[in-house]
Write a structure and sequence with these properties.
The chain is 41% helix and 22% strand. With 237 residues, it is of the alpha/beta class. The longest helix is centred in the N-terminal third of the chain and has 20 residues, at 18-37. The structure holds S-adenosylmethionine.
Length: 237
């Protein structure tokens, strides 16, 4: 564990306590174990899990700051990324993990239970459906997504879930600037406003990644998001 924890200190200014390190160690063990049985994530080695999953998830704090006291929804969370690492670091944050795939949601529920994460739940749903329900529409301070869809589509997934004054954060690779340029219409239509791109780099792998942060300024029109599947088939562009 020591090495990657040293990197979060150096690169992200995050000191991971011993009890948080224990939680990461349990999460890592569960990822390794479940990956043997199910295809949870493509990264299957310990160094990859620590840097490409845990560290990479925690880079969100560069854009979001301290999340204690905030509500966060992680759409297309898969095995709980980036939501679970953020929750370990900010235990006073409330967390909703969402994925369309049952086995991934089962895994997330198991991690929540095993780590004893408070104010956390995992839901099997499509974001398009959640975005139309009273329980989830415009309820969150922050919505995040990593490796889920191109940004014009993500805007339709995430912005309906966020309160006015809240933000969405998309974790992206090299295509970030291009995707942002293609998302002007979707951002405006979904009620988004100011945007910002931050570049972050991963230790060891030297990968360059980007965080796209978009504020929500006005309500999303009632007829959005569109039916499940439509945003990806016919992105707003
Ligand atoms: N965020 C995780 C990560 O970075 O490791 C998982 C990424 S995985 C490539 C994408 C996940 O998004 C899949 O598990 C898929 O089921 C989920 N997904 C895609 N579109 C979705 C939607 N509209 N609503 C809910 N889940 C969705």
């Amino acid at each position: 564990m020591e090495n990657w924890v040293k990197y979060t200190d150096e690169y992200l200014n995050i000191t991971i306590s011993e009890s948080q390190q224990e939680q990461f160690a349990i999460y890592e063990k569960l990822l390794l174990e479940w990956n043997e049985k199910f295809n949870l994530t493509a990264v299957r080695d310990v160094e990859g899990i620590r840097i490409k999953h845990f560290f990479d998830s925690l880079t969100c704090t560069k854009a979001l700051g301290n999340l204690n006291g905030k509500s966060l929804v992680d759409v297309g969370t898969g095995a709980g990324l980036p939501g679970i690492p953020l929750k370990i670091i900010y235990p006073e944050m409330s967390l909703v993990l969402v994925d369309a795939t049952g086995k991934k949601v089962n895994f997330c529920q198991h991690v929540i239970q095993t780590l004893g994460l408070k104010n956390s739940m995992a839901i099997q749903a499509r974001s398009e459906e959640m975005g139309l329900t009273r329980e989830h529409r415009e309820r969150y301070d922050v919505a995040v997504a990593r490796a889920v869809a191109r940004l014009p589509i993500l805007c339709e997934y995430l912005l309906p879930l966020v309160k006015i004054g809240g933000v969405i954060l998309a974790q992206k690779g090299e295509t970030a600037a291009e995707e942002l340029a293609q998302s002007k219409k979707a951002i405006k239509m979904m009620g988004g406003k100011n945007q910002n791109i931050l570049s972050v780099s991963l230790p060891i792998f030297e990968d360059r990644r980007y965080l796209i942060l978009i504020e929500k300024a006005t309500s999303t029109p009632a007829n959005y998001p569109r039916r499940a599947g439509i945003p990806s088939q016919k992105p707003i562009q």
